[in-house]
Amino acid sequence: MAASSLVTGCVGSTADDGNEDDTMSDKARKLFEALDLDENGTLTRAEVIIALRTKGPSLAASGDLPFWGLGDEDASSALFDAADQNGDEVLTLEEFAAVVDRRFGWR
C-alpha cells in the first residue's frame, strides 16, 4: 500500500462514542494504547512502525483500525511525522488523536 493512503486516508464512519464534547474518540484512545508497546503513555516512531506492522492486521480485523489504514514503514513514519506537532519525536495521546480522528473520520 502506498504511503499516501495511510497519511491522506478517506473519511469513513463518524465518531464512535456519540459525545461531541470529548476532544478525541474512544477509537483513537484505544488505538494509541494498542500501539504504546512499552506502556509509558507516549509513542515513538519505532513503536508506531513496529506496532502497526505486527498488530495492524488484527487491529483492522477487530475494527480498531481501518483496513485502508494499514501501510508500510513509510506510511507509518509519515503518520508519525504528521502527528508530531511539536517536533519532539514523541507522540502524546492528544497529538496522535488529533491526526487519526481526522484522517480516519472518527471525529
Structural notes for this entry:
- With 107 residues, the chain is mainly alpha-helical.
- It has one domain: Recoverin, domain 1 (Orthogonal Bundle), CATH 1.10.238.
- The chain contains 5 helices and no strands.
- Helix 3 crosses helix 4.
- The longest helix has 17 residues, at 45-61.
- The protein is globular.
- The model is unreliable at 1-21 (pLDDT under 50).
Give the averaged pLDDT, no decimals: 84
What is the radius of gyration computed over CA atoms, rounded to a whole number of angstroms? 12 Å
Structural class: mainly alpha
Q: What is the end-to-end distance? A: 24 Å
Report the strand count.
0
Q: Based on the coordinates given, report the CATH architecture.
A: Orthogonal Bundle
One letter per element, helices H and strands E, the order comes to: HHHHH
CATH homologous superfamily name?
EF-hand
Main pleated-sheet profile: none
SS summary, helix count: 5
Model regions low in confidence, pLDDT < 50 over at least 5 residues: 1-21
How many domain regions? 1
CATH fold assignment = Recoverin, domain 1
CATH top level is: Mainly Alpha
Question: Percent of residues in helical segments?
Answer: 40-55%
Which helices and strands appear, and what pairs or packs with what?
Blueprint: H1 3-8, H2 26-35, H3 45-61, H4 73-83, H5 93-103
Summed up, what is this model?
Helices cover about 50% and strands about 0% of the residues.
Descriptors for this entry?
107 residues; mainly alpha; Recoverin, domain 1; 5 helices; 0% strand; disordered N terminus
